[in-house]
Amino acid sequence: MVTIHIPWSSKTNSNATWNEITANIVNHFGLPGDKYTTELNENYMNFNFLNDHDGLLCKILVSDYL
Fold first, then answer.
1. 8 A C-beta contact, residue 50 and residue 13
2. CB-based contacts of 7, cutoff 8 Å, min separation 6
3. In terms of Cα–Cα distance, which of 57, 64, 65 is closest to 25?
4. Residues 6+ apart with CB under 8 A from 23
5. What pLDDT shows up at residue 17?
6. Across-strand partners of 45?
7. DSSP state, 33?
8. E-assigned strands of the chain?
């Protein structure tokens, strides 16, 4: 399992940014459930990928926000 950890930070501190991040992930991998699950709280959002290849691709997709 690969976990992509995206903290709430100055880079991700807007609704538009989070919409872009989540839209990119959903567009490439579908909704949570089959390929990944999510966890979130007031400090971060995690995307937990079952497949290492998908996790690496996701990390590349969101690398500007890490």
1. no
2. 43, 44
3. 57
4. none
5. 87
6. 6, 40
7. T
8. 2-7, 36-40, 44-49
**Any idea what DSSP says for residue 4?**
E
> Would the pLDDT of 13 be above 80?
no
How many residues can be counted in the chain?
A: 66
Sign of CA dihedral 28, 26, 41, 1: negative
pTM exceeds 0.85: yes
Q: Which residues pair with 36 in a beta bridge?
A: 49
Q: Which amino acid is at 48?
A: N
26-61 pLDDT, tens digit each: 999 999 999 999 999 988 999 999 999 999 999 999
Q: What are the structure tokens assigned to 24, written together?
A: 């990119």
Task: Indicate left, alpha or beta for 33 from its phi (over 0: left) and psi (-120 to 50: alpha).
Answer: left
Tokens matching residue 2: 């690969």
Tokens 């459930």 found at: 33
